[in-house]
Amino acid sequence: MLALDQPCRRPAAPAVYSFKEKRSEFIAALFPAAAGDEARATLESVRKEHHGAAHNCPAWRVGYPDVEEFCSDDGEPGGTAGRPILGALQKAGLFNAVLVVTRYFGGVKLGVRGLIDAYGTAAAGVIERAVVETALPFKELELRCGYEHLAALSRAVKSAGVAENRLHTAYGTDITLTLLVAPALEERLRSLLDSYEGRQLLAAPPRWSEDYVLATES
Prior knowledge:
Elements: E1 8-11, E2 15-21, E3 24-32, H1 36-49, E4 55-62, E5 68-71, H2 82-92, E6 97-104, H3 111-129, E7 132-145, H4 150-159, E8 167-171, E9 175-181, H5 183-194, H6 196-201, E10 207-216
Antiparallel strand pairs: 1-7, 2-3, 3-6, 4-5, 4-6, 7-9, 7-10, 8-9
Helix pairs in contact: 2-3
């Protein structure tokens, strides 16, 4: 598990890069993905698109702050494809990313060293061309209050350190405040809401998300 104050660098959109090495074509595709199921679905989509390719070699780092890492050589000699691709993701510090390098065999064998270099070059090439964004982990918190308590509750959560742009207000029978709470502020906010003064402002108990969510820096 990563430190919660460590930003998450992730691809903002898919990217593609290709090149040829001794008549073999290598096509590297980078995708955003937040979990293992999404990563596996992405891999299956690439396999369907390139069903005639000799190999579709994947690697991914998904989940945050609990990270799942995976790589596969997909029939290439052991250690010549998956590891170089995963290594490129690690070197770039990318998370929530799936990278698949497709190889259309050109009839000339590259050898172990040649394969490692080719897959590493393809992976590094697509990462270099990708648009990368930085996100931070937050706990999502839902608060409900009456209209008469909105101003006081808004002041209270802001005094605890919650930024204006991390606070969303929805109006209904009651008012629902949805907050993104940075890990460093969580204990302070829990104490505030558990105090007598805090409880008096609420129409229902606070609802915290079990998992962290990511939001881009702003």
